[in-house]
Amino acid sequence: MSVHIGFFSGDISRSGGTENVGIMIANALADIEDYRISFISLFEESDQPFFAIDRHINRFTIYAEPTHGIQHYFDTCLRLKRIVLEQHIDVLVDIDGILDMYSLFVKKLTGVKVISWEHFNYLQNPGVPYRKLTRRWAARSADAIVTLTKADKALYEQHLKLKCPVAAIPNPMTKPDPEPVYDQESKLILSSGRLTYQKGFDMLVDVASQVLPAHPDWHWSILGEGEDRPMLERKIQEAGIGDQLTLEGRVSDMDTWYRKAAMFVMTSRFEGLPMVLLEAKAYKLPIVSFDCPTGPNEVMMDNVNGRLAPCFDVPSLSESIAALMNDASLRRDMSQHAQDDVETFELRSIQTQWRQLLESVVRKRS
Predict the structure, then answer these.
(1) 361 exposed, middle or buried (CB, 10 Å; 0-12, 13-18, 19+)?
(2) What CDD domains does the database record attribute to this sequence (predicted)?
């Protein structure tokens, strides 16, 4: 029996981590003979998606042009219902949990199964205050909830009266080809992500101002773009470290940057399961990170393949980075252990977990 799975996104053509992992999972499931996979976006601002989508996967849009606002709620639900019925979609996977507000309404109208996929963590409601309401609705009415970490699964079970299963399925780690060779002599610190409050780059500048002046032969590059750039440029200038700490903007060749780095540093205030840490792990980089909720302590092992600092302890994080800067053998040893638990994040294992979840949802009686 063929099963049609629709991955529901705000805009699958975007370049964000949510879109990246959504496409990775959809592409992996498209390899399964009995599965038909589609993407449904509220709209697509780009004709060509940033990340490559398997040629067997169809794409549908609810609106032809960018459309925002709660005033379009019922129209959006009716348009989504039409796609679900016309395309005979069996399961909607909401790539962002906020989309549950539409799909759970359509579930009532059509009986389509709904999986709510949480990419942040239960304690955070970035940008949308009614995300709390959709989480409660999902707990009552979704067919399953997927979190990225065991810690977040525990938060759902602790705070909500669940009427559906919660599965912790991590993001996959993609292994680079050719296999990376760690550069023990490198003196480049790497960080990346959108220049926004969540990523904590303001604290990164504070850390850099403590460690870089004492290490004039080191450089720290931040890859990414965002609304915090003007503020960060001012902070860097005021700290007098502009020659050593640079904002590189968006880069197309991440592979080259990872291959020439000595370590990766993350200063996020919160995460779901940070893809940047999985990428750093894939390139065998030692990681230094705040132990923010959630993800870092499930990606790395403290004092084995990196260092975790208490949130948001700037002096502690600075000390951890300085320790690695001062000891090439420590960096090498941590690099050698970077992939000790790599099987947890292998795509084949994660594909199997998703397949098992989807089959249990399809078998479930309404």
Answers:
(1) buried
(2) GT4_AmsD-like
Tell me whether domains 3-172+346-363 and 188-342 share a fold: yes
H or E element in which residue 221 lies? strand 219-223
Q: Provide, for the chain, the percentages of residues in helix, strand and coil under a 3-state DSSP scheme, each rounded to the nearest 5.
A: 40, 15, 40
CATH of region 3-172+346-363, choose from 3.40.50.2000, 3.60.15.10, 3.60.20.10, 3.40.50.80? 3.40.50.2000
Q: Any idea where the domains of the chain sit in the sequence? A: 3-172+346-363, 188-342
Tokens of 365: 């009686």
- Contact (Cβ atoms closer than 8 angstroms) between residue 143 and residue 121: no
Per-position pLDDT tens, the chain of length 366: 689 999 999 999 998 888 999 999 999 999 999 999 999 999 999 989 989 999 999 999 999 999 988 899 999 999 999 999 999 999 999 998 899 999 999 999 999 999 999 988 888 875 666 788 899 999 999 999 999 999 999 999 999 999 999 999 999 998 899 999 999 999 999 999 989 999 999 999 999 999 999 999 999 999 999 999 999 999 999 999 999 999 999 898 999 999 999 999 999 999 988 889 999 999 999 999 999 999 999 999 999 999 999 999 999 999 999 999 999 999 999 999 999 988 889 999 999 999 999 999 999 865
Identity of the amino acid at 115 = I
Handedness of CA 236, 241, 243, 247 (dihedral sign): negative
CATH of the domain spanning 188-342: 3.40.50.2000
Block residue for tokens 């993609």: 174
With vertex at residue 238, the alpha carbon angle to CA 233 and CA 240, rounded to the nearest 5 degrees, is 95
Which amino acid appears at position 7 of this protein? F
